[in-house]
Structure formats: C-alpha cells, structure tokens
Amino acid sequence: MQKTEIVAIDGGGTKTLLLRVRQDGTIAAWRKAGGSNPFDVPEWRAVLTGLMMGQQQNLAAAAFGMAGFGESGRLSRELTETLATLCPAPHSIHNDVDMACRGAFLNGPGILLLSGTGSMAWGMGEDGQTARVGGWGSLFGDEGSAYWIGRLALSRLSQCLDGRAADESGFVSRFAALQGWPEDAALCGSALQEWYANLVEIRPSVAALAVEIGRFAEQGCEIAREIFAQAAEALACHVHGLRRRLSGETLRWSYAGGTMRSPILREALTQECGAPLAPGLPPIGGAVLVAAALAGWQADERFIAQLAVSLEAEGLS
Description:
Blueprint: E1 5-11, E2 15-22, E3 27-34, H1 44-52, E4 59-66, H2 73-86, E5 91-95, H3 96-104, E6 110-115, E7 119-124, E8 130-134, H4 146-162, H5 171-179, H6 185-197, H7 202-207, H8 210-218, H9 222-245, E9 253-256, H10 263-273, H11 283-294, H12 301-313
Helix pairs in contact: 1-2, 3-11, 4-6, 4-9, 8-9, 9-10
C-alpha cells in the first residue's frame, strides 16, 4: 500500500515543531514540544522520542531540521543514531537554518538570517554554492540572538542597579514589573540573584527575555532601543559576510526566528542590508519540501500554496 504522508520537524533551542503533511499539501496533524538543541537541552532525546511516538504508520518519508546538526561531530552522530531508531522510514537530517533557508526561498538562492535562541545565517548563491556564518554558540558567538539580547539586558540591569549606568526610560522598573520583582535597587538585585540561582536551562530562560526587551524598545525605552540597535548591527554582519563569500552583493535576504518578529530590529536591518524578502514558507516548510522530495512527491506551486494556507490556518506561519 502506498504511504501518503510525510513528517517534518523543526528543532530549535526553545521549541520543536512536528508537522505531518498529506500529498495535497494539507496538514494531517502537528505537535509542539520544548527545545531539542543537544548543545543546551539535556533531554533532547526525550523531546524527539515523545514527538515521534506513533508517527510510523503511513509514513513515506521524514526530514529533520535540527539546531546544532553539523556543528559537532559527536552530537551530530548522536542525533543521526537517535533519529534512525525513531524513524525507520527514509529520512534526511539538516541544520535547522539550512532548512529555514530552503523554506524561505523555496530551494532558490538567497540568504536566511536566523535569530532565535542562537543566531546564524545560511546562504545559497546563484550558482548553487552554499555557505554559513555564525552559529558559534553562546560562549563566543550567537551575536544578535535572543540569548545575546537577554544576556546584554541582564548586564545593563545589573549596571543600573549598582550605579554603573543610568536607569534611562525606567528600564529597572520595566524589568522589575516583567519579572514580578521589587523596584528597590537592593531588593531587585537580590531577586535577580535568586532568579539566576534557580535557573535550570540557562540559555532558553535568558533568551525568553528578548521578546519583552523588544516591547520595551517599541515603547521608547532608550536602553532597550540601544540593545536592539547593537543586535541589528551584529546580525547585519552575517548578511554582509555571506554576500562576500557567495559573490552575491545583490543576494536577497530573508529572516526567521522569534527575535526577528521585532519591527524595530527588522527596520534597523533594512537600513543596513536593504529590504528583506518575506519568507516563502516558515522554517518548518523547508523540512516539508525536503521530505516531499525524499518521498518522490512533486512539490509544485499548488502544493506550496496549499501548504502555506494550511500553516497559516493552524497559526504556524
């Protein structure tokens, strides 16, 4: 009997999305779980195991876009071995930013700039050559990422609390209200240290702050606006670097990741890199295209259009 469904997974540092798609581009089912980046989520195997449970029936092929894949030989081998066990069907594993680029440009040339928990850019030149920049991790990279923004905001908060920096535009009171902490400098500092002491997964927790810092910036908070200006400058270097490497100074760029939802960040990047191209499909769409090709399906314009409609209807675009 012909198998008529495929599975696509987009595994990031904060969340992991599984999509089950029919041959006509409609969505049969979807699931969401926590992050699955093996670099900083110890339970990544359990996350993937839970998502893949019961997915084998009627499965023609699967594609996995996984954060961290290809960046560490050992972890990439562990991902490969784990997914081979969870998915006996034909499947393919790529870095999650590679998949996002495929989705944004529908397998065509362009540069995908991702700023989620981490940051990276992936590009394809007009000649089909591919390259990546960034993605070096939080210790000495990931500039402009949600974690980088959250960490910089925490650093500025500590400076405001002990007097090394001025508390511009009520940054301390905004941050204290966000976290449910007292505004008094001494009490707020104690609450900050207590919060830090009780963190279990540091990177996702710090990265989660970036969305609210973005809102502070939109509301006119000078410190938050300064942080996002620095993030835009750092992310623009990713685009410029890939344009040089791929000999494509006019290569269009697109975006993915929760941080890129900030209009202030996108506006600043537009000033630096030109206007972005709206993604043809979200990151999970790239994994769908790879899985469809693996299953021997024709992912034509009708399929892609139906997939885009289905993703929007489910709130997944």
